[in-house]
Design goal:
Mean pLDDT: 82
Helix content: 40-55%
Strand content: 5-15%
Structural class: alpha+beta
């Protein structure tokens, strides 16, 4: 058990802030939503092809952003399983739950 009242996973402390930071990123939200609709492993290339490009970003720019920012963030928050060597991404048990919460939050009118 952690001394700072944070849950322990695989010998390390899971920080809720890392989850919130990942969820604040619209590209991370898209990745989670996309994975929640899949039952198998997805390649990084598949994600690059599917991600919306509002700023006319190139596939190479999106790939770098995923590789260095969004996918590690989501993996650190344990919202996905990410294998950088194999360039694959897989949902976890929490993926669908988090997407349901995000969908519910989007539907709330201010």
């Amino acid at each position: 058990m952690s001394t700072n009242n944070q849950p322990q996973r695989e010998g390390r402390t899971v920080q809720p802030l890392s989850s919130f930071q990942a969820l604040a990123d619209s590209r991370c939200q898209f990745v989670l939503s996309y994975l929640s609709q899949r039952s198998n492993t997805v390649s990084v290339d598949e994600l690059v092809e599917r991600i919306p490009r509002p700023n006319e970003e190139t596939p190479a720019t999106i790939r770098l952003s995923l590789y260095h920012a969004q996918l590690p963030k989501l993996a650190d928050a344990e919202l996905i399983q990410y294998d950088a060597k194999q360039e694959t991404v897989e949902r976890t048990a929490m993926t669908g739950q988090v997407v349901a919460i995000l969908d519910r939050a989007r539907s709330i009118k201010p």
